[in-house]
Amino acid sequence: MSEPLLRLEGVFTDIEQYHILQGVDVAVPAGEVTMLLGRNGAGKTTTLRTIMGLWRARQGRILLDGRDIAALPTPVIARAGVALVPENMGVFSDLSVEENMVLAAVSGPLDRARLDWIFSVFPPLKTFWKLPAGNLSGGQKQMLSVARAVCEERKLYLIDEPSKGLAPAIVGTLVKALKDLKAAGATILLVEQNFSMARALGDHVAVMDDGRIVWTGAMATLAADPALQEKLMGLSMEGGHG
């Protein structure tokens, strides 16, 4: 395991009267894919949003390359090289696909070679380049959401349930794109309910329940142990909030 690029130490986050994160400790190694798994309401989305500064940690440290970013505003965290693909996609429907992409490029004009790679893995984005993003199907909007995050090289990609509600063929396209990103040395923290997608992409796993990390280890260990999967992923059948 390489050195962690990101480390959360004792992170607590409250949303209104709810104590959602209750002492989260997790390390995200550089250049690898860490899966954040667990039942609905366990705190996975809250963890990503807290890292991004969209929700503020009440307590604890969030270290990016050793620098505590827990109190920084979201735009500063973005400029430090962190990109979030939100669960709701966050696409601007009235803007063209091109305009959505240009807005996402924080460091300057879009890189032509990187754009060619994006078009190769997500061909519909080239087809609809000049058209409003609202014309895209749900799967194509998810492609655009991922493309916006990866339009330039970032230190860390936070990706929240990219396969949710998508047809298997689209999920396969997303897996290929994320494998390409991983092969290029990207550091990714990925929330995903689709275990086959998690198994295909993940190097490491952190499993959440009730606002805490309850298991960490290698994806290969979890993938090879059905009893452990049942024990941990069976949590996904329970209810909850967050």
UniProtKB/TrEMBL annotation:
Keywords associated with the record: Amino-acid transport, ATP-binding, Nucleotide-binding, Transport
Record domain ABC transporter: where: 6-235
CDD domains recorded: ABC_TM1139_LivF_branched
Origin superkingdom: Bacteria
Alphabetical list of SUPFAM superfamilies matching this protein: P-loop containing nucleoside triphosphate hydrolases
One Pfam family named in its UniProt record: ABC_tran
Family, per entry: Belongs to the ABC transporter superfamily.
Protein name: Amino acid/amide ABC transporter ATP-binding protein 2, HAAT family
Taxonomy of the source species: Bacteria, Pseudomonadati, Pseudomonadota, Alphaproteobacteria, Rhodobacterales
